[in-house]
Amino acid sequence: ERNLLTRKTLQQNIAAVKAQLAKLLDFETTANPAQLLDNADWTAGVSYLDFLRDVGKHFTVNSMVAKESVRARMQDREVGISYTEFSYMLLQAFDFYHLKETHDCELQIGGSDQWGNITAGIELSRRKLNTTVYGLTLPLITNADGTKFGKTEAGAVWLDPARTSVYKFYQFWIRTDDRDVARYLKYFTFLPQERITELEASHTENPSGREAHTALAVAMTDLIHGEAATQEAQQASRILFGGGLDGIGESTFNEIAGEVPTVEIKRTQIEGDGLPILELFVTSGLCQSNGQARKDLQGGGINLNNERQSDAQTRVTAEQLLFGKHLLLRKGKRNYTVITAK
Predict the structure, then answer these.
(1) Residue 306 contacts by C-beta under 8 Å, 6 or more apart in sequence?
(2) Which of 3, 15, 101, 233 is the least crowded, having the fewest Cβ atoms under 10 Å away?
(3) C-alpha radius of gyration, the chain, whole number
(4) Within 13 Å of residue 52, how many CA atoms lie on the same side as its CB?
(5) Which residues make Cβ contacts (< 8 Å) with residue 137, sequence separation at least 6?
(6) At the top level of CATH, which class does the domain 37-138 belong to?
(7) Domain 166-255, second-level architecture
(8) Where are the domains of the chain?
(9) Are 66 and 98 in contact (CB under 8 A)?
């Protein structure tokens, strides 16, 4: 069942969707601009009786039940299908009819699960307008493990950076299953076919090089968030592999902090003469004792703000805080903790 949303929430969603689509479509051009329409504008004023008379009479229950999307729900006795969901086909058909009549829209595109709803709109337009409109459906995208690639799946990615940060968006594509990366390059990017073929060959020869994954992540992040955001996401990724912190923005650093354990300390602990570095690493949980921290430091495995430390007498002071409140601690190659002074 669909979630029932308030009008205020719907308006907020429409505004957010338009902002996302504006990165892909031109709403401002004078020549055939993109339009984002709200079907409430043409359905809200239609009474139930008028809808039954003008739309419902063109459909038989037999034909509606025969649609795969409806039949599958009706055969599931535990779930079934509500009257609201059953009627949705007629509402979507009415939308297609209205868009053809008002905006001369001739093609509706959707996932393969929308085939029945789209063909209902084709039939309604034929009956009421004596015209032909068309439908194009695409197979639903699935991951290599068979799960649906979509917003209802766990771990789904969002276009809005408030829902999925740029860094996590970039990492989503970097972490694509090896079995999916070539398909996704073809589905989601505008890279030339020749380039995709090269990336496929590179991936086959050296999967650990992840050249195809990087190309996918860069292309998608460029497309949705822009090149500057992509570069910052790449820098954040490099930091978690020991790269320098030069030029990193606070928002990007906060994304890094969200990926690793964080420990809070009182700011007074590092003011003045500061806190001994060995004690700091014990406080962070990266080292179990001062003796272990000293041993790790002597072995070259202690890094503060991604700079290797070699002096066991070093004291960490407030001047070393990133953005006035953070320290990035690393033990070895992959063990990170962020210290936040409050």
Answers:
(1) 239, 242, 243, 244, 245, 328, 330
(2) 3
(3) 28
(4) 4
(5) 109, 110, 111, 112, 114, 115, 118
(6) alpha beta
(7) Orthogonal Bundle (1.10)
(8) 37-138, 166-255, 260-341
(9) no
